[in-house]
Design brief:
Elements (H helix, E strand, L loop, with lengths): L12 H18 L6 E5 L3 H11 L4 E5 L3 H13 L3 E4 L16 E6 L8 H10 E12 L9 H14 L2 E8 L7 E8 L10
The structure holds S-adenosylmethionine (SAM).
The site of S-adenosylmethionine has 18 residues, from loops.
């Protein structure tokens, strides 16, 4: 999907900007209609509820969030949505919650932190299946507001590559979010697998 393409989804702008666009890119790129385990880092209620609908009753969404306030909302949501497992922890320390999480097909991360490439890489090393997929949001001004956003995106994508992520597509979230990009791709992709076009 090219970023110029317009989405007319009927969902609110918040959902479109935060999750739907990158998720659709992921779906279109990989045909992820059989996702069972979905691991989200730093997503709030609305996106998690949509992912919960997408994976359905046979899927699981592990949602890690360190803010206690948002965490309380997640816990309340999980009482109604039994496929959501809320984890109120700092995503920089996956060893603290590894006993709660199975291997997953997809990691989505939108933590907006200076180490926003390292956090999903660390979690992927614990929980993401080989040949699984990632959707990672990069917020340039959390990393270096003095550099052009494009330079920051390039540098973060290079870090992801060093951690066994193979980016396949990158879109900006303009006009919904400034200086914000989303990268999707594969994890520990074997040399034989062709990158998605
Ligand atoms: C930019 S917001 C994500 C918003 C998301 N796109 C949405 O619409 O719901 C970043 C979220 O990540 C959480 N977060 C940031 N650093 C985190 C960390 N180290 N561990 C867990 N959650 C974190 C924040 O509390 C916040 O809720």
């Amino acid at each position: 999907m090219k970023m110029e393409q317009k989405l007319n989804t009927g969902f609110g702008t918040h959902f479109v900007q935060s999750l739907l666009l990158p998720f659709l890119v992921g779906l279109i790129t990989y045909g992820l209609n059989l996702v069972r385990g979905y691991f989200t880092l730093g997503l709030l209620l609305e996106p998690v509820s949509h992912v919960s609908d997408i994976v359905g009753p046979t899927g699981v969404v592990y949602a890690v969030e360190f803010s206690h306030r948002s965490g309380r909302d997640l816990v309340n949501m999980a009482k109604k949505r039994t496929n959501v497992i809320p984890i109120i922890e700092d995503a920089r320390h996956p060893s603290k919650y590894r006993m709660l999480v199975g291997m997953v097909d997809v990691i989505f991360s939108d933590v907006a932190q200076p180490d926003q490439a390292r956090i999903p890489a660390l979690n992927a090393s614990y929980f993401l299946k080989a040949e699984g997929h990632f959707v990672i949001s990069i917020k340039a001004n959390c990393i270096d507001s003095t550099q052009p956003a494009v330079a920051v995106f390039d540098s973060e994508v290079n870090k992801l590559k060093q951690d066994q992520f193979r980016p396949a597509e990158q879109v900006t979230l303009e006009p919904y979010e400034r200086d914000h990009a989303c990268v999707v791709g594969g994890y520990r992709v074997s040399k034989k697998s062709k990158p998605a076009s």
